[in-house]
Structure formats: structure tokens, C-alpha cells
Amino acid sequence: MRVKILLSLVLALLFKTIAAYSNGKIRSACESLKPEHGYSSSTDPPPYKLTVNSSKFSPGDQIQVTLSGATFFKGFLMEARDFGNPEGGPVGNFTVMDSAKSQLLKCGQGSAVSHTSAGKKMEIRVLWNAPENSPPVVSFLVTVVQHYNVYWERIPGPVISQSGVVPSLPNPTAVTDKGQATPSPLPPQPFSSEGCGKTKSCLRDPAGCVPAGGSPCFFLSFSVEGEAVLFELSGPADGYLSFALSMDKWMGNDDVYMCVRDGKRVDVSAAYLRGRTHPENIIQGALRDVAWSWSDGVMKCRFRRGIYTPQSPGRFLLNESYYLFMAHGPTNNGKIHRHDCQPLISTNQKVISGVPEDLTGSRSPEIMKFHGSLMLIAWMTSVSAGVIIARYFRDEWPDSALFGQTVWFQVHRALMIFTVSLTFLGFILPFVYRGGWSRRAGAHPYLGCVLMTLALLQPIMAICRPPPDSERRWMFNWLHLSVGTVAEVIAVLTMFLGIHQQALRLPEPGSTTVLAGSIVWGVAARLLLEFHSRGLLKIGTSNSTDQEAILSGQPGQSVRDDKGSQFRKVVLTVFLCGNIGFLSVLLYTINNM
Ligand SMILES: *[C@@H]1O[C@H](CO)[C@@H](O)[C@H](O)[C@H]1NC(C)=O
Ligand SMILES: *[C@@H]1O[C@H](CO)[C@@H](O)[C@H](O)[C@H]1NC(C)=O
Ligand SMILES: *[C@@H]1O[C@H](CO)[C@@H](O)[C@H](O)[C@H]1NC(C)=O
Q: Residues 515, 482: contact at Cβ < 8 Å?
């Protein structure tokens, strides 16, 4: 069934100067109810309110509508609107009760009421005539001007429904996202993080940040007030801020609450997220006391909703436990776009109406942390060690064997099998997480696929290699070295792109520095060993002895180059210590994201 009943009564009082509109003939504001002058709507709570003498009506009925305030006002513009289509223009005609103070304005299909002069008024009474073809639910809206530069735009008034009409969930896809009664503005003070974990639950990014502070802070708090929960959401956002309740850590089947900026206004709405697509907007009576503000690039919104929502069965019950998602992103014409960074997801499930807790969360899904860690272990450390062993340690340990093979070969093979296995495991994870190919990850996934292919090619070539004395052996050696080197270069590029991916964005510039440091460290170690092996570094015995040892082809009998061997082992040890240091820093960073 459709809750297609929005009756809005809007009073817009528009003054370029008070003289321009002091006669109340402000038809230009009929549609928008916005005063088109240089000032903006007050952010203080409005001192005025609308009341009706009945919340039910039948076509042809007259409903008395009263605008009253704690203080005087000079101008106003009041309208009734279809609750299900509040931007559809005024609904029904009014009858003025005091033509000295109020007058009718013809506005589209219906009429609006405005002031006749700029005289101070305390109260206005008018009658609204329910039309024969009235929408089932109608809301009233009013814009009130106190002084020419002090006014409140679109103060939401009462919502009335036709007798016999049961307001219910609308067809979710058929409803515009402007279906919410206009909320009232919030005072400009930031929300308070005081009481987080004591009187209310909070989810903050960065952890423990203060919304009042100078640095960006995304802030969600909720506290139980009897049968309702008060939610406050704020953060630096130009487009939208939202949070969602979810049964799992995946997007989809979530209960979403959104604050979406539309010009100078912020629309607060609740929606249902079926999949990883646009939310389906649902109008419901479940959000109460909606208030918002948007200034200096910081958006704030606040609302209450019942723990139980019998009147809107689409909403989740707040006595159950959920993961909380917090997201922000751009909008285009009031339509939300995909978030430009991953949503923050609470570490644990939380009973919304439960005891206050200071919650923690992460923007990086666990599965992507595993991906990053596996790839870094494989391509920062394991592969480098494997290459160094194969290239510079072939003559080491000539007298010992490991499981019937030379030591260097066994170590090399073990490290490379380890590398390929980690790569394969790490390669699958993003596909599992995304449920397919990610079009927004740039070159990283393409390079990753090339790397995976090369990494698989290496063991296949190694298995098919010709025996050591074969004439074609040089081809294998050459291919194995080239493919390996290309793979290493691609791996470096992929890692640099990887640490900037949305789903695992490591802190900058620190992470790039650490990764670059580890690359330089590895290159330095290899250069040192390379120079040494070519005799350019005179450590250990003389060049000629090396030559002799190699030429003799009998390593066991050759003159042992003890000092050179010691040098290589020292370089390897120092390299490994530094490399593992760099790796640990990155793994630690990932683990703490
Ligand atoms: C509301 O006021 C109008 C006009 O005075 C009257 O006709 C109508 O019966 C009133 N409705 C109720 C429910 O009192
Ligand atoms: C009331 O509004 C309707 C359109 O909704 C218009 O056709 C009609 O003339 C108006 N009635 C009066 C009495 O102004
Ligand atoms: C939450 O409330 C509903 C309705 O009152 C009830 O059916 C459900 O068991 C409650 N859940 C928990 C976890 O208490």
C-alpha cells in the first residue's frame, strides 16, 4: 500500500526588502516557499507552529489551520501539499477568516495564504477546504518572516489523512527522495562527543575524534529515550552522510538513514538498501523531530525513531543487534552517488537500544586486509629472499644436502612455492569481496592478473625444464630469470597502487615511504652481492681464486672463500632483518586500520 498522503502547508514570506513583498503578493514563491532574497533561513528552532483542529478529513470538509508563535511575525506563506509528492505544488483551496490580516494567492491547482501587510501578528486562522480529488494524506507547510532578514523556511506542520485511509508503506521505487516532511534547522553548534560510552553509543572516524575539533570527524551517536532512540550524525560532507544497520558486514539488505544536501537544505530520509545499488527511498512516519544544518562544509542531522516501528514494517527493530555502516559521498541534483571511500563498518554487532558503548570500526574489510598482508609477505619478503638465495648462494653449503637436493635449491624452491601460494590465495580474496571484477580499482587488478599469470608460469616452466646438461638448458635459465624479473617489477608497481586502493588505503605519506624504503633496501642488498660476485668488491679472497674455484668445477675441493661467504651471509642477514622490519611496519598498519 502507498503512503501517498502528504499535506503540506507552507507559508513563505519573501522579502527582497520588506517593502517589495509587504503586501504579501508573493506568488513567485508558490512552488518553492523560499524567499528569494540574499539572506538564508534561520538555523534556530522556529518560534512558530501550525496546528489543525482535526487529523482526519473527508473530501469537502473544512479544516481549521492555525499559525501561532511565541513571538510576533510580519509575513508568512502557507500551503497544503500532497504528503506523497510534496514538490507537486499546493493542494486544495483555503478560505480566509480575517481578510484584514490574510489573503488568498492563486497557486497552480490550489491556493496559498499570505499576509496582507507587514504589520506585527501573533496568530492567523484559516480554513482549508479538502478537494474532491484530495490525495489521501496531506501536510501543511509554512514559511514565516519575523523581520526582513530573519525568517524560517518551510516549517513542517501537521499531517492529516482521509478517514478510512490507513497510511502504510509506499511502493518503495515509486517514491521520490523528497518525500520527507521538511525538517527544522539545527543550531550551528557541533554535536557533542561528551558522554560517548556512558550516556550514548558513538561510532567515530577517526577513532575518538571530537566533532567540534578543527580536524575532520565523522560522528554517529545514538541514545535511548524511553521507547525511542535519538540519532545524531555529522561530518564534513558536501553531498550526503548516511548510516545503515546491517545483519552482516556486506552491503545489501540494510536499513539506511540518509542526510542528503539539496541546495541549502538537507533532506533526511530512511531507505532500504536491497543490494549494492542505489537505496530505495521509503517514506514512513518512523522518523520524528528531524533537524539538520549545513554550514562551513559540515553537515549535521538529528532525528528520533521508535525502537519498535509497527507503523512501518520495513524498518529494522532497534532491540536487535546490527553492524553499523557509516558512509559519505557526493550528490548530483539531490541524488546520492557512490561513496568515494569505503564505508566505516563497526567492528562488532551492537544492540542499538542496548547499553551505551564507544564503538570502533574500520573502513577496510577484513578480507582486503588479508589480501594486502598476503601480497606484501609474498612480494616484499619471500620472493626477494628466494631470488637472492638462487643467485648468490649456489656455492654455499656445498657439502650438505637437504632432502636429497642442494640446500640453495631446496630453500629457493620452498620460498617460491610459498610466494606463489600466498599470491594465489591473496588473488582470490578481492574477487570474493567484490563479487566480481572491480571497475573502480584502476590498473591494480589488471597488473595483479598479469602478476598471477607470471607467478604461475614460473613453477610450470621449472617443472618442464630440461636437465642441467641439456643443450636447451640456457633457454630455461634465461626465461626463468626474465619472467621472474618482470614479475618482480610488476609486483612493485602493483603494491604501490595497492596501498592506495579504496578498500585498503594505508595512511600517507608514511606507507609509500616505508614501501619505497623496502624496495631501495632490497636493491641495495642485491647490488652489493652482485658487485661482490663480480669481484668488484674486494672482500674475502682474490678474484683469481674465485675464478679457479668456479673453473675447477669441483666446489668441494676448491679453496674455500670463507671471508666472501661470511660477507654474503652478513649481507643476507642484514637484508632480511631490515626487510622484515619494513614488512612488520606495513602489516602492523594494516592490522590496526
Ligand atoms: C474544524 O473547524 C471547522 C471550521 O470551524 C469545522 O467546520 C470543523 O467541524 C472542525 N472540525 C473538528 C473535528 O472540530
Ligand atoms: C478551488 O481550487 C480548484 C482547483 O483545485 C479550482 O478549480 C476551484 O475553482 C477553486 N474553488 C474556489 C471556490 O476557489
Ligand atoms: C525485539 O522486539 C520484538 C518485538 O517486540 C521481539 O519479537 C524480539 O524478540 C525482540 N528481540 C530481542 C533480541 O529482544
A: no
